[in-house]
Design goal:
TIM Barrel, 8 strands
């Protein structure tokens, strides 16, 4: 990758990214009017970049035409206001490249690609998977390690090998939940390779260790609050910022209590941004959790 372009993308994926949800109507269609509202809501709330077609977007339940239409809609509403990252992943390496080739990448700054799921490749298999994609992708790649969903953990040594040997792999979204592993990647990362927290609850600890921000689920519902947290930490942090982070942590924990994105969709519905609708096998949160979330958001005054 051209070094100028490499520096350009590195500046675009720092700070607060938001993994946006895909709104649905009560009858199950993609709700494009709500998607427009959501894009405006998070941009006006101060997020630094958008991530579309990730797990939080319920991508496994979207048809290929719907994926094309959702990406087109987000591009149109964003209108170049913020950098845009698109998720492209599969447990079939050749399929990832096929999907990249089929995706209109005009206006897309980087690709977020999750580790292969279910078939549980070895560490060497993970390296070869990303090497293959790297050699064929026209856009920079952000690795995504989320063993709680995929069934395989990409170890620090493997991440660092990819970072060193695959020039257009520029970052990792680390959601292993293992802060020691994340620190090992940060400490061993070559110049020009960034570490991004994939867990809202670890956003500040990862940044304190040298990470550059978070790709957030919670920022769908609380963009202003999370923008303040991440921006303040990027400037060195403060005790007040730590206290604000601790204040929202119980609410963030509730967002994931019955899976993702049911919790954040419930919070967005409370705020009137999108409807509280999901596609099976995901279902809306229980009445009990909805009530507790509503109480926490109201009492916490999270904007």
């Amino acid at each position: 990758m051209n070094k100028v372009k490499e520096r350009d993308i590195l500046s675009k994926i720092k700070g607060l990214g938001v993994a946006i949800v895909t709104p649905f109507t009560a009858t199950g269609e993609v709700d494009y009017a709500a998607l427009d509202r959501l894009v405006d809501y998070v941009i006006e709330g101060g997020v630094d970049y958008l991530v579309v077609m990730g797990t939080t977007g319920e991508t496994p339940t979207l048809t290929l035409p719907e994926r094309v239409a959702v990406l087109r809609a987000v591009k149109a509403r964003n209108a170049g206001r913020l950098p845009l990252v698109v998720g492209v992943g599969s447990n079939d390496t050749a399929r990832v490249v096929e999907l990249i080739d089929q995706t209109n990448l005009d206006g897309v700054d980087a690709i977020l690609s999750v580790t292969p799921f279910y078939n549980k490749p070895s560490q060497r298999g993970l390296f070869e998977h990303y090497k293959y994609i790297s050699n064929r992708s026209p856009r920079p790649i952000i690795l995504y390690n989320v063993p709680g969903r995929t069934g395989v953990n990409m170890e620090a040594a493997t991440t660092l090998r990819i970072a060193r040997e695959c020039p257009n792999v520029v970052a990792i979204k680390e959601a292993s939940g293992n802060i020691e592993q994340i620190k090992e990647v940060i400490e061993g990362a070559p110049e020009g390779f960034l570490v991004i927290s994939g867990d809202d609850s670890l956003a500040l600890p990862v940044m304190k260790a040298g990470g550059v921000g978070v790709i957030s689920v919670a920022a769908n519902a609380f963009p202003v609050y999370f923008h303040r947290l991440i921006a303040t930490q990027a400037e060195g942090g403060s005790e007040e910022n730590d206290a604000l982070f601790e204040a929202i942590r119980p609410t963030v924990k509730m967002l994931f209590e019955e899976g993702n994105p049911p919790g954040v969709k419930a919070a967005l519905a409370m705020k009137g941004v999108v409807g509280n609708h999901l596609r099976l096998p995901l279902v809306a949160v229980s009445d009990d959790l909805y009530g507790r979330l509503e109480k926490s958001i109201t009492e916490g005054e999270f904007c």
